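Q: How do we represent a protein-ligand complex in a form that can be generated token by token?
A: Start from the inputs.
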Amino acid sequence: MNYFNNEAEREAVERAKKLALEVFRPLRAKYDEKEEFCPEAVEAMAAQKLFGLWLPKEYGGEGLGVNALALVLEELSKVCMGLALPAGTSALGGMPMFFWATPEQRAKWLPDLASGKKLWTFALSEAQAGSDATSIKTTAVKEGDYYILNGSKHYISTGEAADFYTVAVSTNPSRGARGISLIVVEKGTPGFTFGKKERKMGLRTNPTYDLIFRDCKVPASNLLGGEGKGLFIVQETFDYSRPGIAAQALGLAQGAMSEAVKYLKIRKQFDQPVISFQSIGHELAELTAKVEAGRALVFKLTSLMDKDFLAASQNALKNNTTVHDELKNLKGPRWTKYSAMAKLFCSDTAMQVADRCINLCGGIAYTRDFPLEKFARDAKVTQIYEGTNHIQKNEIMASIIKES
Ligand SMILES: Cc1cc2nc3c(=O)[nH]c(=O)nc-3n(C[C@H](O)[C@H](O)[C@H](O)COP(=O)(O)OP(=O)(O)OC[C@H]3O[C@@H](n4cnc5c(N)ncnc54)[C@H](O)[C@@H]3O)c2cc1C
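Then emit the structure tokens for the protein with flavin-adenine dinucleotide bound:
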């Protein structure tokens, strides 16, 4: 089923499809083996204008919103979720900035983000602060026109390859969660270095690094939205970004299934193609139905979100305000429950699809000559990052209680 709201979205998905098949496909096994960042993938996505899909045209974007972003992440992830991830992390690092940036900050940062010239990523997690983001220890102390950052971040996607990092810091440890703020740190700022690179089960085509800040002097003008607003900004961002993780998971699931179906049509046992065994076909039917149910949830959600998202983006430009202020003025719904449901359902579906497709194909799927083992390794992280699925269930549960 198609979930395009306009011709521009359809065209963006066509560009993504061609790129994934022509550029990602020949590279994915090599980079999975090397466990390195792939600059060719970023150049290709930038050339196809995929970084700025969701951003206003006034900043060099395509003005399409979050549905287009999710559709394209889905399409790219059918071939390799990790090679597509810089488009996802740039959106995740860029969204808190886009929502809360002043007009001056937007003018300074958005054009290079939209063109893909500069990559962004988001740094919230720390060694002791995973699900509990309120326990972050990285501090930012104001000294004149600067904040001095000390501390470290853990498991940061796109790692050392990003140019800008939206970093959660404590500007007032005595206030706990209310003392958390977000600040943009540019690579190359003295005192900002990289630590351990993770050796991972999957998502090996996107590097994951620790970030280290030692007396790192960041201009105070890089703060987003004022001191103490950090956790609120993070929650607002996740409401809009988690459907993107769900879309990655759905793309991965479809990619795994199409590899499996191709093989099952040619593999013969007992003198017949394996796909003709009813038990195999029934399993594929069940998985296909689940993926389509996930797609209906995600793209209905992103299409609804776009109503406010696109209006707020334009109003902020017109009124010289922040996108967050304009979203507030529109008084639209909070999407927390639905975003959490989308991520929960689609990441569990992806894991189930990848696992079952290995069962369906048999021994070949357990080898590295066949892409299914990589799909299964990659699928796992969709249940973990941007909040584990326990945390998604907590969000859904909290909404149910609040609404009842
Ligand atoms: C490959 C990869 C890339 C990542 N990229 C980024 C990134 O770019 N930026 C970033 O900031 N972070 C990133 N992360 C971090 C990721 O968001 C965290 O791993 C995740 O939030 C979980 O935190 P944790 O690993 O510390 O697990 P923990 O929080 O220690 O959780 C351990 C277990 O306890 C459960 N649990 C914890 N609290 C609760 C609760 N209240 N109720 C029920 N169960 C609970 C969890 O679900 C889990 O099962 C990445 C992680 C990985 C693996």
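The longest strand covers residues 146-157. The chain has a mean pLDDT of 98.
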